[in-house]
Amino acid sequence: MTTISMRGAGYYSANTVGAKTAINKVADLVVAASAKPPALGPSEPFRVADYGAADGGTSMEMMRRLIAAIRQREPRRQIALAYTDLPHNDFSTLFRLTQGLIGEGEAIADIPGVFISAAGTSFYRQIFPDASLSLGFSATAMHWLSRRPCGIADHVQAVGAAPAEREQFRAQALADWETILLARARELKPGGRLVLANFCIDEQGRYLGHTSEVDMFDSFARHWRDLYRAGRIGQSEYENATFQQFYKTSEEFAAPFRDPASAVSKAGLTLESISTMVTPCPYAEAFAEHGDAAAFAHAYVPTLRSWSETVFAGALDPARPAAERMALLDAFYGAYEADVAANPRGHRMDYVHCVAEIAKSA
What we know:
With about 350 residues, the protein is of the alpha/beta class. Helices cover about 45% and strands about 15% of the residues.
């Protein structure tokens, strides 16, 4: 079984400034959506879910804004905030962040009447009881597939796969999207809302790490291939490094809603709005100001490592000693960093998102 997780111990949110920036860009939409569900009963809490939250750090600022907006409308309304991710997620850091034991800013847990919980359950399953949520949110998570449909012979991600391989990933992604939406339809209260910011391929063919002349996934593939050609990893290890991901287009995201006969439409979900946005890589933007290639590379590569390491670690033979596996990973990311430092032009991990607001019929 493939293990999907972000690097733990706070490493993920500490090294993914771009993800936080992207979430903050959609905060206005989330806050506006929170005002649209029907009124709750006097004793009902406003229930919010953050799906695929990792360690919770990237959405913390947005959550403070959301809570403040709900409280401004209803000063006495209790708020139940649930974070979800896979069972091996770094929930320890999430709870320390929300409790104010690490990080900066007001601890969410210190806000009166806010109740925090977490669910170690995949968003490919129903996580909450029927008709219990007023608002669901997810960012930079639902490009991960429920299963890897096939291997990719000479690349690491579907964007570089052969046509037949890519079509298998696409079919899996479309089926998974329906599964995700139907689970959310059951969880949402009538009139409830979802705001989802998913990685995509936009109208100009751009996607994460591919908005310039350098393609991040091509770079991953090249450096992994170098380890194989040098005899440092075996063929199975080389071929097993496949991201269990797929980037859909806006049309593919919207398709289930535009078909009145689809299971999604019959479940009562409607697409209120959909658009794409690009969030510039903060490390590349800083490099444009300071011009220090080595410093740029040293800051940039850890953000790649924060979400990609488990893919390459999982490809290595588990019979290798742990120290040997870590040395290979350090060599892999070290080579990437040296490459960026020597040739910084074009290296940037701009975020490319499809942002959708979805409503459940009242």
